[in-house]
Amino acid sequence: MNYNPPQHYSFGDPEPQQPQSGPPSYGPQSAPPAYSPAPPAPAGYVPTQPAPPMPTQPMMAAGPPPQRRSPIVPVLAVAAVVGFAGAAVSLALWLRTSGDLEDANAQLDDRDAEVAQLQEDLDAAETQVSELEVEAADAESMRSCLDDLAWYYATEAGSEEETQAELALQESCATWLW
Which sequence spans correspond to the domains of the chain? Predict the structure, then answer.
């Protein structure tokens, strides 16, 4: 059996080759069958039957009908698209919410600092008010002492009114004079 590669695979003149798997053949080389056209018909010849057509391409047998796709394939495709869209929307909302949460936490921290500052200011104001109340009470006590002292000096010596003014003076000026 000879193997002659087709002309388009050849790198030169075709040379007959022996197959590698079998013993060499010792018989005469046979040429491959060649196509020869039918001889021309004699003049005046009318064919009684039309000549069978010569096939130019090999006839392919019809295969089995194509199988119909299962309806689950489009359903899965739609589910995948909806799933990806849902994931994208969820990611966008999460990022937005995360940013809003960070903004809210920053505002909360600012408000906490403001509240702490206001609490410190309130404590300082209360301390100042208590100090001012003590000073006001002292001023009122001093004013009362001075009024009683003025009353004592305005009375006549040895009178009943002088005795009353002296008792009021001792009571109101106890922290200031004695």
Answer: 75-173
